[in-house]
Write a structure and sequence with these properties.
This is Kynurenine formamidase. By secondary structure, the chain is mainly beta. The chain is 11% helix and 32% strand. α3 runs parallel beside α4.
């Protein structure tokens, strides 16, 4: 179903019947993707004495309690409240949900003992394109990302200059297939988070960072219409479900 959408000064054609889900599902399993030194998420039926809230155990309903951390256990979208003393909620600050996005693929560069994404790489990939969002797929790109255990592995991260470049380019929404835009153990400096959200100046309250996405290899680099879906959590971050639609025209 080809639909024409008026977006700013452009008319975009997208096929609403061909959504590309780039979120990672959350499972109550030790094979669930994980970071930040936490145990696996839990999805367990409510128990009240001998009564267990599952149909298979004789109840009339399935009634589960879920225990998880949005930053550690799957695709999540966060706002500046993630790193500020003042409380800012993703639900209060993300008020629009459709954006023009560019999917780019980056092979991280070696820097000492680390692998990083540099400003130069982003400049090469984005050029003069004007986008609201950028979706970064890192290489190698395997399905292992759906179950990777990131704790104590020093994953790839963005250099501060790269995050600053995205801010200067007015990218409002940064999506990446890593547990963080910052180095895992960086003495809590959070250089890229701070640069992207401009914490030394006027806070970018409407800017978001989405981490732990997975962009399958069949999704080509290029221009997409992004639907950034969140759960209405009054929290700095929420589980999220970013959906891409290829721009046809």
């Amino acid at each position: 179903m080809i639909t024409t959408i008026q977006y700013n000064s452009r008319k975009l054609q997208i096929d609403l019947l061909k959504p590309l889900d780039i979120s990672i599902p959350m499972r109550a399993s030790t094979s669930n993707v994980n970071a930040w030194y936490l145990d696996a998420p839990k999805i367990e039926p409510v128990k009240n004495g001998d009564w267990i809230a599952t149909v298979k155990d004789g109840a009339c309903i399935n009634f589960n309690t879920i225990e998880f951390n949005p930053h550690a256990h799957g695709t999540h979208t966060e706002c500046v409240g993630h790193i500020t003393e003042n409380v800012y909620s993703i639900n209060q600050n993300l008020k629009q949900f459709f954006f023009l996005a560019e999917v780019i693929t980056v092979a991280p560069e070696k820097l000492g003992e680390d692998f990083v994404i540099s400003k130069k790489q982003l400049q090469f990939a984005l050029g003069n394109k004007k986008r609201d969002a950028v979706v970064i797929r890192t290489m190698p790109n395997t399905t292992e990302k759906l179950s990777r255990q990131y704790s104590h592995t020093n994953p790839t991260y963005l250099l501060e200059a790269a995050a600053l470049y995205l801010k200067q380019k007015d990218i409002k929404h940064l999506l990446i297939d890593l547990p963080s835009v910052d180095k895992e153990k960086d003495e809590c400096r959070l250089l890229s988070h701070n640069a992207f959200w401009n914490t030394k100046g006027k806070l970018r309250l409407d800017a978001t960072i989405t981490e732990l996405i997975y962009v399958p290899n069949h999704v080509e680099d290029g221009e997409y219409f992004l639907n950034l879906q969140i759960a209405p959590f009054e929290n700095d971050a929420s589980p999220s479900k970013p959906i891409l639609y290829k721009v046809i025209n």
